[in-house]
Amino acid sequence: MKRRDFLKFIGIGGVGAGAGFVLGKVSKPPGAKLIPYLIPPEDIVPGVATWYASACTQCGAGCGTLVRVMEGRAKKIEGNPAHPVNRGGLCAMGQSSVQALYNPDRITKPLKRKGPRGSGDYTEITWDEALKTLAENLTELKSKGNSDKLHLLTSPLSGTLDKLVREFVSAFGSTNYSHYGLFQRKNLAFANLSAMGTASVPHYDIENTKYLLSFGADFSSTWVSPVNYSNGYGKMRQGAGERGKLVQVEPRLSLTGANADEWVPAKPGTEALLALAIANTIVEKGLAKDGGAWRGVLSRYKAKDVASICDVSVERIEAIAVEFAHTRPSLAIAGDSVSSYENGIAGAIAVNILNQVAGNIGVTVIPNGDDLGGGRRVDFSKKISTLIAAANADKVKALIVYGANPVFTTPKAAKLEDALSKVPFIASFSSFMDETTAQADLILPAHTSLEDWGDDFPDPGVGAPVASIIQPAVGPVFETKSLGDIFIELAKAVGGNAAGKITAPNFAEYLKSSWKELYSRNREMAAGTLGFEDFWNKTLQNGGWWGPPRKRTATVSARASEHLTGGPARFEGEEGQYPFYLIPYAQTAYMDGRGANLPWLQELPDPMTSVVWGTWVEINPKTAEKLGLKEGDMVNVESPFGKISAPVYLYPGIRPDTVAVPIGQGHSHYGRYAKGRGANPIEILPYNEDPRSGEAALNSTRVRITRGGSGERMVKMEGSTKELGRGIVQTVSTSEFKRMKKEGV
Amino acid sequence: MKKLILYAVVGGIAFIIGYFVNYQLFSDRAPVQPINFSHKIHAGDNQIQCQYCHIYAERSRVSGVPNVKRCMGCHQIIKTDSPEIQKVASYWDKKEPIPWVKVYNLPDHVYFPHKRHVRAGLDCKNCHGDVATMARIEKVSSLQMGWCLSCHSKKEVKNGSDCWTCHK
Description:
By secondary structure, chain A is of the alpha/beta class. Chain A is built from 25 helices and 28 strands. Among the domains of chain A are: about 185-365, Dimethylsulfoxide Reductase, domain 2; about 580-715, Barwin-like endoglucanases.
């Protein structure tokens, strides 16, 4: 070997070894750090979980929760097994509340608008400045004698928080505090008020029902109190005694419908007539428990007259009527698809009459008592139309919004955004940039329910008094404030009457004294406790207080029949031009759109279609064939009020004259996971609010379907609706079966 | 051409040697800590029990890094003139935790509770070595799965070789 080569080898060897050494160095993970506590908190052992009992506020059902907290961070939420509403269950929305807590798109500090409205151009300000600005706006209003021009619009708040807000608004001198949202079931409440005297949904004892006739109530996924009903349904089907039967009447097969023994796809809008015809058949056949008072009214709804309108055969109506009356106890319920028609109240009353005739009231229909006085108040005089009219008439000088998102949940035809542009000052207390908050001039972000105090008196509850407590499971993650504290501090800053009335130092104290009052007037609560402090500690430990069941009954008042319309529901759009009924429905994960900003809910496959991260249009395969559409094709869904685009999903579980679109997507704001995804069917609905209850009629337009451009791809978990010869479902024909039976195979 | 291949082979071998020299001899078995803390002085010379500082070992998954207040409990008075103790005091004054470097690191897919091992009467020495003689703490066990299993089988731990015992 030459000297030259030797040196070359040395050089190459050196460079190689050096490179290897450096690679070895950088490929090693950096030493993880062990960060100790400065001073260890007494109640935290690192690595050991602490569970806090609280209540879920994602929807109005009021399920009890247990929050698993480690080192001060909420990690997991489970249902509270001791809570009578959910008995340990918790739905996907409840599970996802941790993602609301840690959401990367939360508003973390108070914001003040810099650019034009809706531009999203905000500057961060301090809490002192934010409260001062808001208080100044309100005091100016007051000094000009315009106190009543303050409007407050919130999601249905419950219990003590609702009491505090009510107190603040009235002490300030305004009467304009209203709850707003889709699926408030105001039509049901109104029907129950006129029929049974209580403005709320009664407790339906599904557990002990043997024949459940559901008119479009998707109680296992979105309707009123899904976890409670699903639990009851499980026991109805597989509990002690004979297996109960479920019959579902709805134009679009929901998850509940898919579980039913029978699906009755009545023509949309005719469910009220069908219910009355069933009731009439029961009375005519002499099977009624209590039909005397109704004979006259019902005689107008003969099965043979109604059958063709409803598209259900006379034989089927009669068979259902006989089985409903004979199977004891039975139960009929009116769900969202019935109460969302323009004649929703009539539909709900018809179902009440059916229950009365079959003798179910007081047996499986237990009217609500609101024993503890904290239940959600339904105020029929407060409507979104009231706010729009007031804003257009220059009667809204300041608007405070929390929880409600009317810009997203009100049809474009209502021209809400125009009305809002006339309001000189809008403040939002939301910690998420939803479509309504994006219109705000000032944002004071409130805690999520995992960081805040509160209470809930579930309505409809369980036929027993229930009071749940909401306690902070974790310290605030960002610079947000307790919603109650915002109102208390605002009352102090505004001064005058409000400051005189609300004297509690903070909301935690306010809540505690409110419960002290409740305790002092309730003997059942006091029983077995050593004074209030003992009761309070036990309440915090258990997640609330619940009493023994109450047996209540009522009689459906004959006067309720004045709300019956006598015909099917009306739909906007002429049949020739707009051939399909549109059913926009609450989807399991997104509900009214509130769940769209949580990735867990976005990636949760829809239980019926398995679609994720988007909107779809459900069309019957026969209809699609006629229109020349295949699965995944983009279509325009066009009503007299506008147009949206989404891909087609071929769904055999829908009537050929009906199309359905889930609500919840199509956000223009609301964070990275929701924004610019799918379409919002509410946009193309007519502005059709029931003048009596204030509930929006969602199912009240016809649409036409036209082929759309290329666009969004539909992502779904399932591959095919066919078994493709894989023999997953084995079938034999009836004749074959008879032959096999005869031959004893 | 032949020469080029030879160069590549020599370079490659050197590369591998360099990599392993780093990996074996320059490992982080005894990383430099923000404070030059000596277990020899505390656990050795002064005979302080492990769980006096690692307070959660018997109650939790983790044994617990001593909180800064625990250090200052003694060192407000003891050896306040030492520059290392003054470093501890300066963390305390700034109300900042001390960023110790982790020596025993298990991946996330391993569930290891100190509690069970301590309660079973296992001496800390079994895994952490004779820390009473270590001026700077040093990793003495591989923490590889085989190492865990050999002890589990030797001590006849119930379900000790079941996957779900540690991977859950």
